[in-house]
Amino acid sequence: MQNRYSEDGGYIVGYFLSGRTYWIADLWVHPTHRRRHIATRLMSAVCKHADEERVVLRLDPVPDGTIAYCDLCDFYASFGFYLYAGIMERKPK
Predict the structure, then answer these.
(1) pLDDT reported for residue 1
(2) Can you tell me the distance from the alpha carbon of 92 to that of 22, in angstroms, rounded to the nearest whole number?
(3) Boundaries of every domain in the chain
(4) What residues contact residue 3 under an 8 Å CB cut-off, 6+ apart?
(5) Rg from Cα positions in the chain
(6) DSSP letter assigned to residue 35
(7) What class is the 4-90 domain?
(8) What is the pLDDT of residues 35-68, one digit of tens each?
(9) Are 61 and 72 in contact (CB under 8 A)?
(10) Is the pLDDT at 12 greater than 90, yes or no?
(11) Residue 60: which of 76, 78, 38, 37 has the closest Cα?
(12) What is the pLDDT of residue 37?
């Protein structure tokens, strides 16, 4: 089954998702442990698991005040995520 969406004036106004999808609810590293590539290792492990299970990953990139939105999107893009309907999505490899 495919994802479906509804448009109005070029804007997506509603959609539903089907298939195997994992939502990443939160990725956070304690401030005293940042800059040690912990988030990178966590995301690498999540992406590897998603590839093995053949699932799509989705997340809503919301900065916590310590990183700019564009830098956060760049971080996720480095793992193959792209913006899709206002969220970021990554298909299995």
Answers:
(1) 44
(2) 11
(3) 4-90
(4) 15, 16, 17, 18, 19
(5) 15
(6) S
(7) alpha beta
(8) 899 999 999 999 999 999 899 999 999 988 888 9
(9) yes
(10) no
(11) 76
(12) 92
